[in-house]
Amino acid sequence: MHEMSIAQSILDIALEEIARQGCDRLDLIRVECGALAGVVPDSLQFCFEALVQGGPHAAARLEVVSLPLRLRCSACGRTFGGEGQEALWQPCPACGALTGHTVEQGKELQISHLEASASGGPIHKPTACGHAAARRALRKRAGVPGGNDANSCGAQRSGSQ
Ligand SMILES: [Zn+2]
Protein backbone atom coordinates (compact mmCIF):
# COMPACT_ATOMS: atom_id res chain seq x y z
CA MET A 1 0.00 0.00 0.00
CA HIS A 2 1.24 3.44 -1.02
CA GLU A 3 0.32 4.98 2.32
CA MET A 4 2.37 2.44 4.24
CA SER A 5 5.66 3.73 2.88
CA ILE A 6 4.57 7.29 3.56
CA ALA A 7 3.59 6.41 7.12
CA GLN A 8 7.00 4.79 7.56
CA SER A 9 8.72 7.93 6.26
CA ILE A 10 6.71 10.12 8.59
CA LEU A 11 7.60 7.93 11.54
CA ASP A 12 11.30 7.81 10.61
CA ILE A 13 11.52 11.57 10.23
CA ALA A 14 9.62 12.20 13.45
CA LEU A 15 11.76 9.81 15.48
CA GLU A 16 14.93 11.33 14.11
CA GLU A 17 13.69 14.79 14.98
CA ILE A 18 12.57 14.02 18.54
CA ALA A 19 15.87 12.23 19.21
CA ARG A 20 17.60 15.44 18.23
CA GLN A 21 15.47 17.24 20.80
CA GLY A 22 16.43 14.79 23.52
CA CYS A 23 13.08 13.02 23.61
CA ASP A 24 12.40 9.33 23.28
CA ARG A 25 8.64 9.06 23.31
CA LEU A 26 6.55 10.27 20.47
CA ASP A 27 3.16 11.71 21.43
CA LEU A 28 1.73 13.47 18.42
CA ILE A 29 2.54 14.03 14.78
CA ARG A 30 0.52 16.43 12.72
CA VAL A 31 0.80 16.11 8.98
CA GLU A 32 -0.55 18.53 6.42
CA CYS A 33 -1.82 16.75 3.39
CA GLY A 34 -2.83 18.66 0.28
CA ALA A 35 -5.66 17.59 -2.00
CA LEU A 36 -3.12 16.81 -4.74
CA ALA A 37 -0.71 14.88 -2.54
CA GLY A 38 -2.32 11.60 -3.53
CA VAL A 39 -2.70 10.38 0.02
CA VAL A 40 -5.87 9.00 1.57
CA PRO A 41 -5.92 10.37 5.14
CA ASP A 42 -7.88 7.44 6.62
CA SER A 43 -5.51 5.00 5.02
CA LEU A 44 -2.50 6.90 6.30
CA GLN A 45 -3.94 6.82 9.82
CA PHE A 46 -4.53 3.12 9.57
CA CYS A 47 -1.00 2.42 8.36
CA PHE A 48 0.54 4.60 11.02
CA GLU A 49 -1.37 2.81 13.78
CA ALA A 50 -0.29 -0.52 12.38
CA LEU A 51 3.34 0.61 12.40
CA VAL A 52 3.49 1.84 15.99
CA GLN A 53 1.29 -0.88 17.44
CA GLY A 54 3.00 -2.87 20.17
CA GLY A 55 6.13 -0.70 20.03
CA PRO A 56 7.52 2.03 22.24
CA HIS A 57 5.46 4.64 20.41
CA ALA A 58 2.16 2.79 20.49
CA ALA A 59 0.48 5.75 22.18
CA ALA A 60 1.57 8.19 19.50
CA ARG A 61 -1.22 9.85 17.55
CA LEU A 62 -1.16 10.93 13.96
CA GLU A 63 -3.29 13.89 12.98
CA VAL A 64 -3.84 14.45 9.30
CA VAL A 65 -4.88 17.96 8.36
CA SER A 66 -6.39 18.01 4.89
CA LEU A 67 -5.58 21.10 2.88
CA PRO A 68 -8.07 21.86 0.12
CA LEU A 69 -6.93 22.82 -3.33
CA ARG A 70 -6.47 26.53 -3.93
CA LEU A 71 -5.85 27.92 -7.39
CA ARG A 72 -5.08 31.38 -8.67
CA CYS A 73 -6.33 32.45 -12.07
CA SER A 74 -3.45 33.78 -14.14
CA ALA A 75 -5.82 35.91 -16.21
CA CYS A 76 -7.64 37.84 -13.49
CA GLY A 77 -5.88 36.88 -10.27
CA ARG A 78 -8.95 35.52 -8.53
CA THR A 79 -8.26 32.65 -6.12
CA PHE A 80 -10.66 29.76 -5.93
CA GLY A 81 -10.63 26.23 -4.73
CA GLY A 82 -12.11 22.81 -4.48
CA GLU A 83 -11.79 19.56 -2.63
CA GLY A 84 -10.42 17.00 -5.03
CA GLN A 85 -8.14 16.66 -8.03
CA GLU A 86 -11.01 17.28 -10.43
CA ALA A 87 -11.20 20.83 -9.09
CA LEU A 88 -8.02 21.43 -11.09
CA TRP A 89 -10.04 21.45 -14.29
CA GLN A 90 -12.69 23.95 -13.33
CA PRO A 91 -12.93 27.31 -15.09
CA CYS A 92 -12.19 30.48 -13.17
CA PRO A 93 -15.46 31.55 -11.52
CA ALA A 94 -14.69 35.21 -12.19
CA CYS A 95 -13.52 35.34 -15.82
CA GLY A 96 -14.09 31.84 -17.13
CA ALA A 97 -10.47 31.15 -18.06
CA LEU A 98 -9.93 27.41 -18.36
CA THR A 99 -6.17 27.11 -18.22
CA GLY A 100 -3.13 28.67 -16.66
CA HIS A 101 -4.26 28.43 -13.08
CA THR A 102 -1.48 28.33 -10.52
CA VAL A 103 -1.68 25.87 -7.65
CA GLU A 104 -1.27 27.92 -4.49
CA GLN A 105 -2.11 25.14 -2.12
CA GLY A 106 -2.72 21.43 -2.48
CA LYS A 107 0.63 19.75 -3.10
CA GLU A 108 1.69 19.78 0.53
CA LEU A 109 2.74 16.66 2.31
CA GLN A 110 4.68 17.70 5.35
CA ILE A 111 5.02 17.34 9.06
CA SER A 112 3.77 20.57 10.56
CA HIS A 113 3.95 19.74 14.25
CA LEU A 114 5.48 17.20 16.59
CA GLU A 115 5.01 16.54 20.26
CA ALA A 116 7.27 14.28 22.24
CA SER A 117 8.47 13.72 25.75
CA ALA A 118 11.39 12.17 27.54
CA SER A 119 10.73 9.02 29.50
CA GLY A 120 12.85 10.39 32.34
CA GLY A 121 10.32 13.08 33.11
CA PRO A 122 6.84 14.36 32.40
CA ILE A 123 8.10 17.40 30.51
CA HIS A 124 6.10 17.91 27.39
CA LYS A 125 8.18 19.30 24.65
CA PRO A 126 6.20 20.46 21.70
CA THR A 127 8.51 21.02 18.81
CA ALA A 128 7.87 22.34 15.40
CA CYS A 129 9.37 20.46 12.56
CA GLY A 130 8.93 21.96 9.18
CA HIS A 131 12.45 21.62 7.94
CA ALA A 132 12.94 21.37 4.24
CA ALA A 133 14.72 18.04 4.36
CA ALA A 134 11.73 16.38 5.95
CA ARG A 135 9.37 17.87 3.43
CA ARG A 136 11.55 16.80 0.55
CA ALA A 137 11.89 13.27 1.84
CA LEU A 138 8.17 12.88 2.23
CA ARG A 139 7.35 14.34 -1.13
CA LYS A 140 9.82 12.06 -2.83
CA ARG A 141 8.29 9.01 -1.22
CA ALA A 142 4.80 10.12 -2.15
CA GLY A 143 5.74 10.91 -5.72
CA VAL A 144 4.37 14.42 -5.48
CA PRO A 145 6.05 16.59 -8.08
CA GLY A 146 7.34 20.01 -7.22
CA GLY A 147 5.76 21.98 -4.47
CA ASN A 148 6.51 25.14 -2.67
CA ASP A 149 9.60 24.87 -0.53
CA ALA A 150 9.48 28.54 0.18
CA ASN A 151 6.60 27.67 2.44
CA SER A 152 6.94 28.64 6.02
CA CYS A 153 8.42 26.54 8.72
CA GLY A 154 5.91 24.53 10.69
CA ALA A 155 6.49 26.73 13.70
CA GLN A 156 4.27 29.48 12.42
CA ARG A 157 1.68 27.23 10.94
CA SER A 158 1.05 24.85 13.76
CA GLY A 159 -0.83 27.46 15.75
CA SER A 160 -3.37 28.07 13.06
CA GLN A 161 -5.22 24.81 13.42
ZN1 LIG B 1 -10.05 34.52 -13.87
Describe this structure in words.
The protein has 161 residues and is an alpha+beta fold. The chain has two domains: 2-68 and 110-150, hypothetical protein PF0899 fold (2-Layer Sandwich); 70-105, no CATH class. Helices cover 29% and strands 26% of the residues. The chain contains four helices and seven strands, in the order H-E-H-E-E-E-E-E-E-H-H. The strands form two sheets. Strands 2-1-6-7 form a four-stranded mixed beta sheet. A three-stranded antiparallel beta sheet has the order 4-3-5, with no helix packed on it. Residues 128-137 and 139-161 have low confidence and may be disordered. Residues 73, 75-76, 78, 92, 94-95, 97 line the site of zinc ion.
Kindly list the characteristics that best describe this protein.
disordered C terminus; hypothetical protein PF0899 fold; 161 residues; binds zinc ion; elongated; 7 strands; alpha+beta; 2 domains; 4 helices
Secondary-structure map:
Layout: H1 2-20, E1 25-34, H2 41-52, E2 61-67, E3 69-72, E4 79-82, E5 102-105, E6 109-117, E7 124-127, H3 132-142, H4 154-157
Parallel strand pairs: 1-2
Antiparallel strand pairs: 1-6, 3-4, 3-5, 6-7
Helix pairs in contact: 1-2, 1-3
- Distance from first to last alpha carbon: 29 Å
| Count of distinct strands | 7
Tell me which ligands are bound.
zinc ion
Task: Indicate the CATH architecture of the largest domain.
Answer: 2-Layer Sandwich
Please identify the top-level CATH class of the largest domain.
Answer: Alpha Beta
Q: What letter string, H or E per element, gives the SSE order?
A: HEHEEEEEEHH
Q: How would you describe the shape?
A: elongated
Number of spatially distinct domains: 2
Secondary structure category? alpha+beta
Oligomer: single chain
- Spatial order of strands in the largest sheet: 2-1-6-7
What is the alpha-carbon Rg in Å?
17 Å
Percentage beta strand: 25-35%
Q: What characterizes the major β-sheet?
A: 4 strands, mixed
Low-confidence stretches: 128-137, 139-161
Q: Number of helix segments?
A: 4
